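User: These chains co-purify. Model them together.
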Amino acid sequence: MSAEPRLVEVRKNVLKQNDVIARALRERFRAAGVQTVSLVSSPGSGKTAFLEKTLTLLHPRYKVAALVGDLATENDATRLARSQAPVKQIITGTVCHLEAAMVQNALEGWNLNNLDFLFIENVGNLVCPSSYDLGEDLRFVLLSVTEGEDKPLKYPTIFNSADVAVVTKSDLAAAVEFDEAAAKRNIQAVRPGMEIFKVSAKTGEGMIEYVEFLERRRVRSRAAAV
Amino acid sequence: MHELSIAMSIVEMAQEEAERRGGAQVQAVHLRLGLLSGVVKEALLSSYEMVCHSTPLEGSQLLIEEIPVEVFCPQCAVPRLVRSIQWFCCPECGTATPTVLHGKELEVVALEITE
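Assistant: Joint model of the two components:
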């Protein structure tokens, strides 16, 4: 027994287990030709309304499905089921974010070859989900007009980890004197070049442009996979 | 607050490594933590202490090296450290850049052990 500590090199990613599962999921999604989109935002920014509208707009033409994460209740899955798309609720208990293993478990028994789009709605949280890769092709971060234009500056990590920003509840913009230019400037500051959509799931404003973007992305990923 | 589950992974990882080395005693864990990792240093330190309680790692230290955010400036064509994570641009020429080279690290790099 020597009392002198010895330094041994390890070099291991702490989230390796999650990353390995996420990578396997991404490969499965690619092989099945399903475009996978995850949604992150703070609680109450309108993820579920946005997703319900998205599923409804895509559903007649494409095969779509969704997984929704929440700490408790199946309310979101019930709401989303109105779109006629297959929906599964992931109840995380006390866990504040989704992990790749939860997505993997939820997909058990699903034939991904039958899908064109899969949406994964994360738990409402702008902090923890940023560290966990779910194997998605695109991560959307939502910001509602009622939350304030400086949200991206307060939560730069999650905005930086996302691929697309969606400003939601645009129908309320005038009522809350939302400064769109400032919001866009802040988003660009933490993630230069990020594509931004402004939508209202209620009135449908901007939803067509955003759905067309999804369709283009799907064509592009399928072409890349061939 | 996902620091607790991350601390659990770190302790598990260190314990496995120690067992592979014939049941060595872990004195300290060296961790590289990027400023964009989404993990808060203070929360991780207190979670680590909590998780180590009543395990062979009780009393061990978590030594954190914070990794600043480094981006690639397309204008200067060199890596640069950003001045603030609220402003992803080159600190020299001001060109905005989304290319992050470092700052997302969350890795155990070494252990201090006694045998």
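Strands of chain B lie at 25-34, 61-67, 70-73, 78-81, 100-102, 106-114.
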